[in-house]
Amino acid sequence: MKRVLLPLVLVLVVCSGALAAEAPKDQSPLDQALERIDFSGLFFLSYEYGDVDGEDINEFFVDRAYLTAEARILPFLSGRLTLDTSQDREGDGEGDMEVRLKYAYAKLDLGEWRMLRKLQLEAGIVHMVWLDFEEHVNLYRMRSPMFIERSGVFNSADFGMTLTGLLGPELDQEYRRTVNPKYAGRHGSFAVGIYNGGGYHGHENNSDKVVEGRLTLRPLPDSLPGLQISGLAILGKGNRPGEGDEIPDWETLDVMVSYESSHGAATAQYVSGAGNQKGTWVEPGRPWVSTDFDGWAVFGERRLGPHWRVIGGFDRLQRETVEADLGYRRSWAGVAYDLGRRNMVVVDWDRRSFNAGDRDDETRYQVTFQLVF
Asked: Which of 92, 96, 215, 236 could cross-link with 210 by S-S, CB 3.0 to 4.6 Å?
């Protein structure tokens, strides 16, 4: 824990020094620094019951606990540090609360260039190009990761660089206030990045880099501003040791149509590719040969007044090796109550059925409290 808290202390020290020259005479450098540092937290506190992976479950647990410090250093330069605490569910440390860095990056505000607005460059442990966008459409990450992450294709952050921006000016203030303030470019948004490829909690096992890109278009900004069409492309190698052809390919293509309004949101997406981020989707006995996959998912949210929400979705993934059919189907549904300021209680049911006849269905019931400050 001391090792992980040290970077947070260093952020405060560095920012205090950087801002000392600008501090008013009647204000200490530390007070000036603290005025430019924002602290926030995001906790997923859960109870689940059911049968998963052949085992009965009946437990309270902390799925995630994020602590973030964001520092405004210069008009064009800021930094972010996020600690990610989760409970180890397997291995020698099963049950332990593990703390690691989720994000640690410098962010440059690059202004605008023609129709590209709010250009920003992150460098360090950064957002990858897709999940931060999807999680601002589907707000229910607290119950489970998004389809493409939960399936095992990739996670949300990595060591590298990400450039993001909006296509055209932002939509009007009313849309941003009542629907969604994030990625609110009038004609869409984009993100491109280059990464190690191992993810934020994976050691880089080879020298290859992964290139990713997301393009989102908003075709009817005046009549239907909540409608967006998004595409994702990933090209690289899985995170396994080796050189050249010894490393499995990782290729992903994803297309998603989404719609948002003050009454709710809905998404439908299709994904296909070969291999995955970890380099584990390979043929048995031939770890350099990636297996193909494809799948689709739908999600819907209906808001019933200022507090109640009804949510649900369906996922399907197809993946086969020469020895086994590893595909599955997942159905889920739930009810949420928004206490205000994104503090929310979610009760949901989740059932997964496997294509392989020798695997039993999994069913779990979960209650999650999302705490935000």
From this structure: 236
